Structure formats: structure tokens, C-alpha cells
Task: inverse folding
């Protein structure tokens, strides 16, 4: 399955919100991302069709097991790359923005090599 960057951003947002809230609703996602209700509704519909998100009758959103695995993968990339860029001296905003773009396109091979390097040479950043 090949999910577009925007779909991955929605999954990551649901994942991040669910770490801090018991209930995640479409309105929470829209507010967090700065998107309109119709845009969020369309995106959630696509993610439901892909089997990555469940929307209950009361409007609560949750990630399926496949959705959670993908969201955790994206979040790990975002977190590690952001920290690495800041360690290299990049300011926080730029590091986070760049990590957000790169996390969707970096190959598994390259990311695993970066992760191995960070774990070996920066033990305080170990994942």
C-alpha cells in the first residue's frame, strides 16, 4: 500500500493526539492540523477505506492495528530526524519542518542506517 504524504500526516496526527487524549475526534485533528472540517472528513474517509482508521458512531477516531504501525513508523522518523538535525545545530523550527518533509520520502534503508548511527554514536538519543 502506498499512502500519500497527506494521509501519513493525518495518521501521525491521530497517533500524537491519542497519546495525550482518551478521545480523538475529527474536529481535534482539524484544529491540530489547521484544516477545514470537509478536508478532514474526506481524508478520514480515505483512511477508513484503506483500513487504517476506524470512526465510531459517536465520532471517535481510532487507528487500526495497521494504521497504528504506520503512524508509529512515521512518528519515529519525525522524532529521530528532528533530534538529529538539532544535534547538528539546526534551529528547532527548521529541524522539525525539514524532518516533517523528509519523513515521508526517506527510504527504509537510509532511515535504518541513520537510526543505527544515532544509536551507536549518540546513545542519549537511542531508539
Result:
Amino acid at each position: 500500500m502506498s499512502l500519500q504524504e497527506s494521509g501519513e500526516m493525518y495518521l501521525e496526527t491521530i497517533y500524537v493526539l491519542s497519546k495525550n487524549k482518551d478521545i480523538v475526534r475529527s474536529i481535534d485533528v482539524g484544529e491540530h492540523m489547521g484544516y477545514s472540517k470537509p478536508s478532514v472528513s474526506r481524508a478520514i474517509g480515505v483512511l477508513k477505506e484503506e483500513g487504517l482508521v476506524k470512526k465510531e458512531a459517536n465520532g471517535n477516531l481510532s487507528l487500526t492495528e495497521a494504521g497504528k504501525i504506520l503512524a508509529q513508523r512515521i512518528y519515529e522518523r519525525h522524532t529521530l530526524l528532528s533530534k538529529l538535525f538539532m544535534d547538528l545545530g539546526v534551529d528547532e523550527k527548521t529541524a522539525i519542518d525539514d524532518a516533517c518533509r523528509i519523513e515521508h520520502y526517506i527510504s527504509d534503508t537510509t532511515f535504518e542506517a541513520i537510526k543505527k548511527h544515532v544509536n551507536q554514536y549518540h546513545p542519549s538519543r537511542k531508539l
Summary: Strands lie at 24-25, 53-55, 60-63. DSSP finds six helices and three strands in the chain.
